[in-house]
Amino acid sequence: MQAILLLTVSLCLAAGSLAKEPHPCKSPPLLEGSLALAILKEKTFGVERFAYNAFDERVHVRVLLDIDNKTIYSDTLILYKEGIAFEIFRHNQTCKKVPFKDHWKPVEIPKDAKFQSQVIIGSFSAPGDGLLVNNWSGEVAESPVKYLITFTEFGCLPVHGWYDMPDQTLLSMSFYDIVIGVEDPDIFIPPSFCDKVELNSDRETTSLFDALMRSL
Amino acid sequence: MQAILLLTVSLCLAAGSLAKEPHPCKSPPLLEGSLALAILKEKTFGVERFAYNAFDERVHVRVLLDIDNKTIYSDTLILYKEGIAFEIFRHNQTCKKVPFKDHWKPVEIPKDAKFQSQVIIGSFSAPGDGLLVNNWSGEVAESPVKYLITFTEFGCLPVHGWYDMPDQTLLSMSFYDIVIGVEDPDIFIPPSFCDKVELNSDRETTSLFDALMRSL
């Protein structure tokens, strides 16, 4: 896993400002934000707006992807506790409702992640010029996906993730414009035009990534 | 150029905090720092410690690269004004001195770069949790290399660069631990064991990237 090496070797050179090794942390339970997504092998790029509710175990994501120069939009609401994902098509007020079988994954540093380094994005030479972050590496439980993730030291907010998939695909996720809290709690409630939609049991979605890909 | 799309489409979704479009800026003339380098097609990863002196037009870089699971180290001092690059081998106190024919490239947002978006890495919901940055895109002068670069709003420090090379290679550079100023000015002076080395005119280096690759 070469991506992991990226930060492993950085320990040799980085002028790290580490005083005490940080502990794995958990992000605040209510978040909104954006992320820039790049699936590098397939040259797929996109952006995502997400809303995250760890109390009710719900995630709402709107994705705009560029695949082979074709732009694709999706709007997905996942209710982990209920085991249901809604694919929402607001332009014609329709909905698909599919079983969702993954367990809840909070935004956090996994307990078995390995601390790699503490660095400053930018600089602490002047106020407002820098951000203190921690780099962690590990392997996703029950899968051969290896990751290298960067979270802020204060606030425990996601900054960046590299995911090395089994088929050699490298996935990059850059987070930005995160807000702690959720402005509109209704974002976690399926829209009324989804109420009478039957569950399509022919399809089953087993992960957030799968849900996003399947809804395209 | 799909990488450029990454931020272009983000304008559609990003909850940007843009008040007034920023102007291209130039970094402070003396800098030290690190960067994590990834050449994605070739699965080459590495880290670099750099010192930068825009007054004398000198750059000193120490690179640790992982190519095909082989780790390679290089130490290069480039004197742009003099048109010379030194490849330094401290372990046996030897040196190579080669002509260097590139023109000086300051760390800055090129004047013809296109402003893409202003975003926060992390969050402004709590103090110390976020960093305000600007994304710019463009094409390197006299080459078909397209770029997408991120610099801090305050201080004009490099944060990240995507470079889309002509052969479809995607180069990612993540900067960190930047210090404004240079602790040891001697870092820009060739070590004494380089004094009597003859210029090897058989080899000519035409860019910083070329210098780094050739010195491996």
UniProtKB/TrEMBL annotation, chains A, B:
Its keywords, alphabetically, are: Signal
User: Quick one: signal sequence residues?
Assistant: 1-19
GO BP field: cell-matrix adhesion
What is a single Pfam family found in this protein's UniProt entry?
Answer: Ependymin
State the InterPro entries in the record. Answer: Ependymin
Q: Which GO terms describe its molecular function?
A: calcium ion binding
> Which spans are transmembrane here?
none
Q: Which GO terms describe its cellular component?
A: extracellular region; lysosome
- Show the PANTHER family listed in the entry: EPENDYMIN-RELATED, MAMMALIAN EPENDYMIN-RELATED PROTEIN 1
Family that this chain belongs to: Belongs to the ependymin family.
Its recorded name reads Ependymin
